[in-house]
Write a structure and sequence with these properties.
Chain lengths: ~550, ~450
């Protein structure tokens, strides 16, 4: 196993190099552009990753990333449970998320996994999913695998998995029984259509809604009766969970609880005479073949990585790659396996598109997005992060520090969306905002509460320099190069500008920060180090509170 | 938002610097003198769909037996769980004729007491309606059923905005739009961004959680030792003199500058506020949020809002299973927090100024699942305050069967007899919104008889 993964790395690297050469990686990438690419494609740039993108080229970097193997959260967290004598609990998973985000190599997969966790949502906020952590770990691994696999496969796998069944309440869902007043639970039928696959309105391939609804209540009821008779294998159906030893694995069908008759939805008929598994598969075949899936999913992925208001042409280019399952990049490099819903093809199409790669021009108001709180924190920490190998055994680091409810991290802890509708909706525009008046959206601003803006911003400003970002001191920012640069304020501001905003601070902002740094006198005496630190803390405070940092363009 | 000590030493504590001088918003609350013209509406959102049938229960022999027959396995779970609080002799009767022999679950006893004291009214069977309707009318004409019933997100949106999921402007915020709102604190949510409280003009101050931190270095000491660095930092935080070239950055800059000023003010209001301290009940999350409301009410002389709308919320009501384990605890928290809030307001002479009401996306089905209940339609709601003409049920409580005129085909859920518009307009009228403005907030108001919903003393 070890040999294979090692080989994969080597091959991936070779492939990357080859591609870089083939595509004439001579194409010079400026460090600004490399940083900007990494804001979109990873959890944030630092000095080394910028150099790596410059060396490999965009295509080469993507190829390299796509060849990196999945590091399973289930395996790792189970080791943590064992080391802790614990058998459950979400902290090791959340801790591992941060560890991987800050120190992991497979940045593209992780960034996509995080995006998918916000589209195909099953939240740990719900006690039902939280109590079944082993299944939840499998769900996260599915997101991770299919992040560079296949979106439609993800929907299929997640549907047969206990986490989603518990979260959207089709676990032990029963066929209608008029005498006992039972109707099938409609939760999953509704949300799989509205949120995971087709959305509310028919869409053109370029994402433009036609205004015609995709489904009505009858479709919901019809599909709801498909998702009946599903539970883990156990002695009986209805109180099955009591007899299931470990909540994990695939759901099975219980014929006597599955709706035997015709199930009509979206112009198709499922059954009669099929068992639960066959019915669900047939229904998913039909649903996932819907022409909305490509533009619906493509647009949301673009919004998560690149820009809140992609042009219809951009959406269409990505949707075509999604449907074709392949994307031909400049230099005749092919991404994807040729199967519809291929995520490598889709991802390459998103990140290599001219609309993603070109910096917005002067009159371009629509390109860009507001960074969500979690991304802001990770971008900041990675800029200062020391290189550190991921732990492979024992208790997951970070796990004991994160995710308490009074903690600034908790503004947007991964996997803990308040509802299936994610932390924010893809169509949100704040009433009265300029974005709204332009008929555009800024989804992440739904999280911009006074608390977020005031608390998290100020907390971030203090976290890197004054105390480390958590009390255990486990995150050790590599401050030396920054402290050194603090002797020359202009150089320090340039460094932060590059890593944190890909050089988009306004000249006036930069001048003000530089002036503030000069106003802190650095003498050649015992207080020198302290004063340099004060310059650094002031610089970080001012950059992370700059609106230019809140926005990614 | 807690006013307790921060858990992180990284926070720098101290007096606000971005207060009076920097912003024009007064830094310290001045407790109100003029109590005549201040009113606050406090909306308590019960997220998930409150089981009306497990709150309001028929207590007469026949009614109780009919009710229990729809909830056999759920009642068994109450027995198994060791708190058999749905037995008939445990229920707390609501006095008076309008309650029609109904009782409240014993966990809601503090609300029953407020009811008995005339400080709380119940509005029965409210929900979204196209027009007044009945079971028979619905069977004949499906267009009378609002779309997307029983969907959490859509019904939450409809209750808040009278529109589908995705609508961002609520009727609470729109009520404020029609009133004098010069204060930046007119609409406040202690549950993050809540569409209900967002108006077209009235912007919502959305607080999520956590302490409102401080920018390091801006401390009391630096206030009298104003350094060049701090001057520049303050300029920076308001993006002074920077002309951004795109809409995202301009919006963020505006919101951020405002948020930092608001946070400074709120932090001062909440610090050592006696009203807020009195409302807090240890371990009761809703009480913490209501404590913040009480503090803002007490600080009305400082923020100068003459009308305020608050949103607080409580989660966990969507109990498809394990209802007997979950709901009683929530009911206790809800009732304790509301009663304490009322008590503190009364002791401060503010009870008449504040009306608190509940909102929940739907009621639930009369017929239970194994150990829970499913999404219904109409539900019962509580309205509390000194101005409320309490001790009454407004509207009608229907029999606990699945075959009466207002029983929905979906397992005895309720077809509302009162529309959200009627409930909202009654609250809006108390708030001071004129009848003509009200029809702008509630465009369909004309389809319903507002005279049916009299909640307040005349």
């Amino acid at each position: 196993m070890a040999v294979r993964s090692c080989l994969c790395r080597v091959l991936g690297w070779c492939a990357g190099l080859f591609v870089a050469l083939a595509s004439g990686a001579a194409e010079e990438i400026s460090e600004d552009d490399a940083a900007r690419f990494l804001l979109q494609a990873s959890f944030g740039p630092h000095q080394e990753s910028i150099l790596e993108v410059q060396r490999r080229g965009y295509v080469g970097w993507l190829n390299h990333q796509m060849a990196l193997p999945l590091s399973s959260v289930a395996e790792r967290v189970e080791k943590s449970y064992a080391a802790n004598g614990d058998s459950n609990g979400e902290k090791p998973l959340i801790g591992l998320f941060w560890e991987q985000a800050l120190h992991g190599d497979d940045q593209l997969r992780q960034r996509l996994r995080f995006a998918l966790s916000q589209i195909v949502v099953a939240s740990l906020e719900d006690p039902a999913t939280r109590r079944a952590m082993l299944a939840y770990l499998d769900y996260v691994d599915m997101l991770g695998e299919e992040a560079l696999g296949n979106y439609c496969t993800l929907i299929r796998r997640v549907t047969f998995q206990p986490t989603m069944a518990l979260y959207l309440t089709y676990y032990e869902n029963q066929k209608a029984d008029e005498d006992r007043g039972i109707v099938p639970d409609e939760n999953y039928a509704r949300e799989i259509m509205q949120l995971f696959t087709i959305g509310l309105e028919h869409l053109a391939l370029d994402g433009t809604p036609t205004g015609e609804p995709t489904y009505d209540q009858n479709d919901v009821s019809g599909l709801a009766s498909v998702f009946t008779g599903l539970a883990l294998p156990g002695e009986n159906f209805r109180n099955g969970r009591a007899t299931v030893k470990v909540i994990r694995g695939d759901l099975v069908g219980y014929p006597q609880y599955h709706e035997p008759g015709e199930k009509r939805f979206l112009g198709t008929v499922v059954g009669p005479g099929r068992d639960a598994i066959e019915s669900v598969n047939a229904a998913l075949d039909h649903l996932l073949a819907h022409p909305n899936v490509a533009p619906f999913v493509s647009k949301q992925l673009i919004q998560k990585l690149v820009t809140s208001n992609p042009s219809p042409a951009y959406i269409e280019r990505v949707a075509r790659a999604f449907n074709a399952g392949e994307f031909r990049a400049p230099g005749d490099v092919l991404f994807g396996k040729g199967q519809r819903c291929d995520m490598q093809a889709t991802t390459a199409a998103i990140l290599l598109d001219p609309e993603a790669r070109q910096r917005p021009g002067k009159d371009d108001q629509l390109t860009g997005k507001v960074r969500e709180p979690l991304i802001r924190v990770i971008h900041l920490m990675r800029a200062f992060g020391s290189q550190q190998d991921l732990t492979v055994d024992g208790v997951v680091p970070y796990a004991n520090y994160l995710n308490s409810s009074h903690d600034p991290w908790a503004f947007q802890s991964p996997f803990t969306s308040p509802t299936v509708f994610n932390f924010y909706r893809p169509s949100y525009a704040k009433p009265g905002s300029e974005v709204e008046s332009m008929g555009a959206v800024a989804p992440e601003t739904q999280l911009m509460t006074v608390s977020h803006l005031a608390v998290q911003t100020t907390w971030m400003a203090s976290c890197v320099v004054s105390a480390g970002c958590e009390d255990g001191g486990l995150f050790n920012p590599a401050l030396a190069p920054f402290i050194e640069a603090a002797d020359r304020p202009g150089a320090l501001v340039d460094m932060l500008d590059l890593y944190l905003t890909a050089n988009t601070l306004m000249p006036k902002t930069k001048r003000r920060i530089t002036t503030a740094l000069w106003s802190i006198n650095v003498p050649y005496d015992l207080r020198r180090e302290e004063k340099l630190e004060k310059r650094l803390s002031t610089a970080v405070t001012m950059v992370v509170t700059a609106p230019e940092f809140m926005v990614q363009r | 938002m807690s006013v307790g000590p921060t858990s992180r030493r990284a926070f720098v504590r101290g007096m606000g610097l971005l207060g009076a001088a920097a912003t024009g918003i007064p830094a310290l609350p001045v407790f109100a003198q003029d109590k005549d013209d201040y009113r606050a509406l406090v909306c308590v959102i019960l997220t998930g769909g409150l089981d009306n049938f497990d709150c309001v229960i028929p207590a007469d022999d026949q009614g109780y037996r009919a009710w229990a027959s729809h909830r056999v396995s759920l009642l068994e779970q109450y027995e198994r769980a060791g708190h058999p609080t749905r037995r008939r002799d445990m229920l707390v009767a609501l006095p008076g004729k309008s309650a029609g022999g109904h009782a409240l679950a014993p966990e809601l006893a503090p609300l029953a007491e407020l009811y008995a004291q005339g400080r709380l009214a119940m509005v029965a069977n409210v929900g979204p309606l196209v027009a007044p309707t009945t079971r028979r009318a619905l069977e004949a004409d499906q267009s009378l059923a609002p779309a997307r019933l029983a969907s959490h997100s859509d019904q939450t949106a409809i209750w808040s905005t009278l529109d589908y999921e995705g609508a961002n402007v609520g009727w609470g915020g729109q009520l404020l739009d029609h009133l004098e709102t010069t204060s930046p604190f007119s609409s406040m949510s202690f549950n993050g961004v809540e569409a209900f409280g967002q108006g077209r003009r009235s912007d919502q101050v959305a607080i999520s959680s956590g302490n409102l931190g401080k920018i390091p270095g801006l401390s009391a000491r630096s206030q009298w030792q104003m350094t060049r660095r701090n001057e520049l930092l303050i300029e920076h935080l308001s993006s002074k003199g920077v002309k951004y070239t795109d809409m995202f950055t301009r919006d963020v800059a505006r919101q951020q500058a405002l948020a930092l000023r608001q946070a400074d003010f709120i932090r001062d209001v909440l610090r050592n506020n006696p009203a807020s301290d009195a409302v807090r009940i240890e371990g009761n999350n809703l009480s913490y949020k209501l404590a913040n409301v009480a503090a803002m009410v007490a600080a009305r002389g400082a923020h100068k809002a003459r009308r305020q709308l608050f949103v607080v919320a409580m989660n966990g009501f969507d109990n498809h299973r394990n209802e007997a384990e979950v709901l009683p605890r929530l009911q206790m928290q809800l009732a304790d927090a509301l009663a304490r809030f009322d008590q503190v307001l009364a002791s401060r002479g503010e009870a008449d100024l504040v009306t608190t009401f509940t909102l929940s996306e739907f009621g639930r089905t009369l017929s239970a699942n194994a150990t829970g209940t499913d999404h219904g339609w109409g539900g019962h709601h509580f309205v509390m305050g000194g101005a409320v003409d309490g001790g009454r049920v407004v509207g009608e409580l229907t029999p606990p069967t699945t075959d009466h005129d207002q029983a929905w085909a979906r397992r005895g859920g309720l077809i509302p007899t009162l529309a959200i518009e009627q409930y909202g307009a009654a609250l809006g009228a108390w708030f001071g919104v004129s009848r003509s403005d009200m029809t702008q907030v509630f465009p369909n108001l004309g389809r319903f008889d507002t005279g049916l919903v009299e909640i307040f003393k005349r």
